[in-house]
Design a protein that fits this description.
The complex is a heterodimer of chains A (about 290) and B (about 280). Chain A is an alpha/beta fold. Chain A is built from eleven helices and ten strands. In chain B, a hairpin with a 2-residue loop joins strand 4 and strand 5. The chains are: A alpha/beta (about 290), B alpha/beta (about 280).
Chain lengths: ~290, ~280
Amino acid sequence: MPIRLENVSYVYQPDSPFQAEALHEVNLVINEGEFIGLVGHTGSGKSTLAQHLNGLLKPTGGKVYVDDWDLTAPGVPLKKIREKVGLVFQYPEHQLFEDTVYKEIAFGPKNLGLSAEALTQRVKKALQMVHLDYDIYADASPFDLSGGEKRRVALASVLAMEPAYLILDEPTAGLDPRSRLEIMEQIGELHNAGITVILISHNMDDVAQLTERLIVMHQGRIIYDDATRRVFLNHAARLKEFGLDIPTVTKLVLALQKKGWQLRQDVFTVEEARDEILKVIREGQRHCSEI
Amino acid sequence: MDEIIKINNLEHWYINVQGHNRQALKGINLQIRPGEFVAIIGHNGSGKSTLAMHLNALLIPDHGSVIINGMDTRKPELLWDIRQQVGMVFQNPDNQLIATVVEDDVAFGPENLGIEPAQISHLVNESLRIVDMSAYRKQAPHLLSGGQKQRVAIAGILAMKPNVMVLDEPTAMLDPAGRAEVMQTVLKLNQEENLTIILITHFMEEAILADRVVVMEEGHIVMDGRPREVFAQVGKIKALGLDVPPMMELRNQLNQAGVQLPADILTVEEMVVALCR
């Protein structure tokens, strides 16, 4: 069942001098199984939007539906919804608080009334999903781990709730290159395992390589919502105007096209660029005049 | 000219709660000249930050020495002179700003150095001008963007008139616009204010802006050279698990397919020029 947003608006501190509209009449359907990138400048409303998807924030205008539950209706089972839609905040390791990794990950599912054995199974499975060995890590203090490991424990604590949807807010911010790669690979695996993933990121190289659909926000509105490749293909110049980056390889393709090279424009990875450039060179179509 | 930073055989151990020793620095030798812009890259746990904290005597060598402008960090009586000379900027701007108004925050350092009030006001003006934040001097820091906060943190260090600025992942928590602002400021400090810059970063596109890149791994310096020389060793960089700039990677793959290109291509512009030659 999808998540649906109908004309969702959100105003922070309404009727005060600090009133600020963070979302303006947003319409959106997220279907199960999708892998969506959500990008936009800081302050564009991405994180506010994410917090609407599991009822942490309720719209000041419009409706949010998760599995046909209207999140604004009185008596809606928010606990169920938060089980279904897992939200991993920025720097989730700041929220670690238990004295062992086991207790940290078991904290959520413990409240579901599971048997001790089922609880252990959940913890094991969640650790496995982030590639941490249960026997080594279960009894360790989360505070003795490296930054990348802490973040994976925090991710596992959300995965232990077995969410159908997973929203990740800048999951690789502040990590070193090796940890960044590991986390991105694991997110790819989670999607392959059937979890719907919504990835909020400033890293366009990651977004271009992983996601199938891209939502671009600007000043509280969705300005583009299309296949990721099509967004970069059709709107590269506009994205730059909005202060957003485009994949490095796309920058190269645009610069070469300016010189008169006939290149396919939907090229996002180094391998694709290599093949396109080789094709042009072999056909003897290397141009170098400014046009 | 004489080196401003001289590190000889520096070793450092950490002792954790279980009492186990872990050696974070295993004999570092490094000389840095005045006005150099040095980027230090490497994994978490490779020793970058431990090294940085030795540069203004936040950590004292367990073995070997660190000499800043002729001053040995092991001498307690030189501590404050060393810290005035070497300013540090950290990852999280929110942990570095303490006052409720931007200009008070920038004045905090010089006030503690016992400088005359009239002189402090001059230093604050000058520092805010350099980081291009003069318009925000009466603002509350918490209302600023991440990039602006980080620039105020830099101004606070500048007001103490240091010769060296050490920045430990100053852009890790910022968005692309904030990152660009901070890197522009860092370049300006180096080029116009003639500060010696030590930049610790995980972003290779920042490291390529430096004069020199030092790569650390497991407490050792494993590579040290101009960015072009360092990143041209694509295989070695990859083996260390670090990112290779995308254009360097593309250059390598094209080269393997028989296209002759210079070995030191780092940027999109350079790739375009090389392909058009």
